[in-house]
Amino acid sequence: MLRNSDVKTPHIDRLSTQGIRFTRCCNDARTCSPLRQSLYTGLYAVRNGAHPNHSQVFEGAKSLPHYLKPLGYRVAIAGERYEAPASAFPFEMLGGNHGDGGKTPVGADLPLERAREFISRDHQQAWCLVVASNQPHPPWNRGDTSRYDPSTLTVPKHLVDTPVLREALSRYYTEITCMDGQMGEMLQHLKELNLEQDTFVELASGAAIDVDEN
User: Fold this and answer.
1) How confident is the model at residue 101 (pLDDT cuts 50, 70, 90)?
2) Backbone φ and ψ of 42, nearest 5°
3) 155 SS3 class
């Protein structure tokens, strides 16, 4: 089992043990914009046109809302937006910020209370919600870094062990745990709304997390 034993992600761990892990899955882009647009369109970045970073899909490209709305779904997104043009991604926008870097009040960049309002709005209609967290993303200034003492971390073998690197790992791992807390909050919303057993939850990440091969 591939995992990083230093990083604390209790909610993601619980989701993985109760669900299915795609251990041989990979994304076709290592940068933010192409990856998101690939996930939303279901097409490789070189096929939808958004293969460079800060780019957009070809005219006429379709995404989740185009396919799900005709089937009766409400389709929304909360948090980070990094896709274009708007006509190709007609999500209902629930608010949030793209790459706020911790400069806004906690929760302003990912308003999970609005996500809760969306999923509880109509119990008769099916829905699809994308919760797009900014974490973990530089400058890594969210969360409580006291949970990760730099001196006790295991430095991956391919990195040079320096005090600067250990400090960066501490802040990076802190933001991963912060994102895990966001996942936990959304799972709690589903439980409180009695939707826990009727909702398909998928976690997808473009972050490259170093792992122990033990």
Assistant:
1) confident
2) 75, 15
3) coil
